[in-house]
Amino acid sequence: MSNVKSRLRKEKIAKIAMQLSGMAITGSLFFIVGTILYKGLPYLSWEMVSQSPQGGFYIGKEGGIFNAILGSLYLATVSTALATLIGIPISIYLNMYVKSGSFLERACKLLFDVLFGIPSIVYGAIAFSIMVWIGIRASLLGGIITITLLTIPIVVRTIDELLKTIPIDLQHVTFSLGSTRWETAKMFLRYIRPGIFTAILLAFGRAIGDVAGVLLTTGFSDNLPKYIDEPSATLPLAIFFQLSSPIPEVQGRAYASALVLTFIILIIVICTHLLASKQQKHKI
Amino acid sequence: MHASTSIQTAETQDLVALATPHIQIKDLNVTIEGKRILKNINLSIPNNSVTSIIGPSGCGKTTLLKTLNRLVDDTKGVEISGSVLVNGEDIYAKDAEVTHIRKKMGLLSQKPFPLPMSIFENVAYGPRIHGERNKKLLKQIVETQLRNVGLWEEVKERLDASATRLSIGQQQRLCLARGLAVQPEIILGDESTSALDPISTQTIENLLIELKKDYTIVLVTHILRQARRVSDYILFVYNGEVVEFGKTEDVLLNPQNEITQQYVKGFIS
């Protein structure tokens, strides 16, 4: 009986620990969102999200962050699209074409784990030195290349984990119908489609929120990003510059900008979930 | 084991005389990560009949089945030697085209595994990958194969519904229809009824008996009563070796080998 009591006590402790950590995370999230809302909402205006800086915006004058919103959206969308297009074939190759347990498979997966963990400033610094070497100035293109490289490991590792969850029966079914590996891979992608949206969401979140990677490679500008070879403003950098200002008005605008960034991510999350749930129709 | 090998050889020779061999296995050895799973298998499987592979768990039944459609190729650390001839053509020859070989052999696995698509698309998938684009013809194939497995009347109104909505017995029949849609010559069943209820099991068994007039069927089963009900020939595998091969009644009612006798009587399982 005492054994049962001790087991039930452990069950209770584990449950409380889980509830506490859950509450801590939810609490922090509410605190962050609350702070942004409290400090940023008074400064948020239509003018701010619809206009570019009119000169002196970062010292409290007229204008808005529309150029930064657009810059961030361009950068994150193109980088995520490129990272997905490059990352999915890498994952497929490592899981379906390279011999399971081979040196190549283990080495590549280790490499992507390391790349996954490298801070974005390192990507930025390396990309910056390459840009200097080949003579490209800080531009949207530089930022896209850097952020694509930064997000490829996210896509590769997430898709890799998803592919591991596929039952071997699916491969047996498609192979036994005479499918090639590529046809089987397409079936695998169909099977993990809801999860692919999660991978894209993770990559997009990292791409749109990154500061260090774009600091050296994308530069900053008060103009709307019109050309890929010109510097462009990005939202995280706009927030960073405004927060560094001693002027309270500008600091308030930083929180309003953070609110805009959070809202964009919220919209992307909702869209991803909607798309992913539509793909659940034939879920096994 | 030497005695058993000689029995097997004698039985095999008799069978070759009895029926046309569809599959011939010669000196087949399979090693997985250093462990010998199949040892010197020599065997002829006759056409238009049901051959059941029986034996205790872990004896190599499923591996033997998977060597027939080369699904064993992808197993980690696998080494295969010997040959498997289908219609006289060695499927392990260097120039053998694996997708073509697999197309010839429909697989009915342990648990039904519908593809993550509609009922219609599940059956149409095979013909589609083999180049069939004509929608009218695809519809015809789907209907024919669903009728073949007795599923048409149950699903004809909801062909666009997800295949996963079907009951498990219906799913297994759908998987059979999907396999038949690529026009195989051989049907391989890996304990295909083990996840099914008795009524669905009976339906599948009756289907297999009916299908043998057009196909060569090789089944792995651990249920002796099932082997007795459906098979014409039985192959008893023990410890990676063929112990006995012969007509169902001979192997089950009058086994020549001591180990077969023990297995059939239930002393080893």
UniProtKB/TrEMBL annotation, chain A:
It is found in: Cell membrane. It is a multi-pass membrane protein. InterPro entries: MetI-like, MetI-like_sf, Phosphate_transprt_permease. The keyword Transport applies. This is Phosphate transport system permease protein PstA. It comes from Sphingobacterium griseoflavum. The chain crosses the membrane at residues 20-38, 73-98, 110-134, 140-159, 196-216, 254-276. CDD domains: TM_PBP2 (cd06261). It comes from the Bacteria. Its main location: membrane. Keywords: Membrane, Transmembrane, Transmembrane helix, Transport. Belongs to the binding-protein-dependent transport system permease family. The keyword ATP-binding does not apply. Residues 69-276 form the ABC transmembrane type-1 domain.
UniProtKB/TrEMBL annotation, chain B:
SUPFAM superfamilies: P-loop containing nucleoside triphosphate hydrolases. It comes from the Bacteria. Keywords: ATP-binding, Nucleotide-binding, Phosphate transport, Transport. The keyword ATP-binding applies. SMART domains: AAA. PROSITE patterns: ABC_TRANSPORTER_2 (PS50893). It holds the Pfam family ABC_tran. Residues 23-264 form the ABC transporter domain. Transmembrane segments: none annotated. GO terms for molecular function: ATP binding. This is Phosphate ABC transporter ATP-binding protein.
